[in-house]
Design a protein that fits this description.
alpha/beta; 2 domains; eleven-stranded mixed β-sheet; 10 helices
Length: about 450
Amino acid sequence: MNLTFCRLLIIINSLFVLQACVTTKKVAASADSYFITGDTLPDAPKLAARGEYKVGVRTIELVNKNQVDILHSKAGADPLYDRHLKVEIWYPALIPEGKKELVAYNQVMGMFNDSARPLVPFTFEGRALRDAAPDGGGGTYPLIIVSHGYPGTRLILTYLTENLASKGYVVAAIDHTESTFFDRAGFQSTLLNRAKDILFVLNQVADLSKVDSKSFLAGLADANNTGLIGYSMGGYGVLNAAGAGYSPKLDSFFTLITGGSKAINVRLAGNANYKATFDTRVKAVVAFAPWGMQRGVWNAEGLQGLKIPTFFVAGNQDDVSGYEEGIKAIYQGVVNARRYLLTYENARHNIAPNPPPPETLKPAVPYSEYSFYAEPSWKEQRINNINQHFITAFLGIYLKKMDYSKYLELQEKSNDKTWTGFKPRTSVGLELLQDSPR
C-alpha cells in the first residue's frame, strides 16, 4: 500500500468520525424529535395529542400512620404499622428557557423475591421536567389519582399521566407498598389496602393543595373535583373507593387467607362504616380491566353503590380479569351510574400500560418481562393513543364540563363507520357500550 493511498484513507476516516460527531450532537440537541412513550402515532385519534400546558413532575413520600399490618396478622390479631407510600405527581408547569421538557424515569423489570425474574434496572424517557415550577396561571386543576396493578409501579402509565397533566390536571400516581415490582408481598395487602391508599392520598394531596400550604401544590390541585384511574387491581381499588362495596364472599376469602382477620369488613357493601367513607369529592372513575368479578369480589348490592360516571376499558380476550363474566359483568351491574365500556377486540389484559421497555427485546431477557406489557394483537403505542383520546373526552366532560360528547356518542361497533375523532379507516377492532343510570 503506497503512502498517498494511506493518507487518503486517513482523511476519509477522519471525515466519517467528524460526521458521526455532528450527527450525535444533532440527536442530542433535538431529543424531543424522536418517539418517546406517550407520543402520538400518525393514526392517533384527535384527543390523543398533548394539551396546551408544559408538564412538571415531582416525587413525594407520604406516611399513613397506624394502619393494619395484615402481612403479620396472626389468629385474627391485627398489628399496626406506618404505611409509607411513594407518589409521583405530574402537573402543569413553567419550563425555563433553555430547559427541555424531558425526564428520565428509573424502573425495574422482574419481580421481588422471584429467582426466575430477577430485578433488572432500566431507564426510560418521558416528556416532563423534574421539579419544574408549577404553572398557577390556570388557577386550580382537577385532581387525578392513579392506582397500578399487582404488581406494578406508579410509572407504568406515564403515557397517560403526562398527557393528562398537559391538559390541565394534577395527576398523582401511587406506588402501593407491598404491591410493586420492588417489594411484592402477600396478596392480602393488596386486597386490603388499595382503596384505603387511594383515599388517603386524596386527603393528603387536598391538604398539600391548600393555599397556605408550603408545598409546591399550594393552590394548584382542586381535590373537590377528583377523578380516579385504576388498572387491574388498581381497578378493583378505585371502584371500591368510589362506592362499590365488596361482597361477603371476599370477606370470607380474606378471613381464610389471613388466618381470621376481619380487617376488610369495613370495605364491604352494607357496612355502615363503609358508607361513611364515601367521598363526594370523587366525580369520575376510569377502570382498566378491573379484577374480581369472576372470584365473587363483586355482587349486585355492592355494584349498585357506585353512582358516579365510570369509564371501563377491557380486552374481550382478557384471561386475568375475564371479560363476559368479568369486566363486562361489572359494567352491566353498575346500574346506578352513567357508564361506558370501551372494548379492544382480540386483546387480553394489557390494555393499560406503557409499551414493553426496549430492554425486554434483548434475547437474554425472559419472555415474561415482555409479556407483562405487550398485547399479542395490538401495538401498545396504538392502544396508548386510543386510551389518551377516550380518557381525555370522558374526564373532560365530567371534570371540566367540556363539550366532548360527540367523541363518546358513537355507533357501538367501530368497524361500521369511522368514529368521530378518528382518521379515515382507522377506527377498527373497537366497541363502545354506554348506558345511563336506571
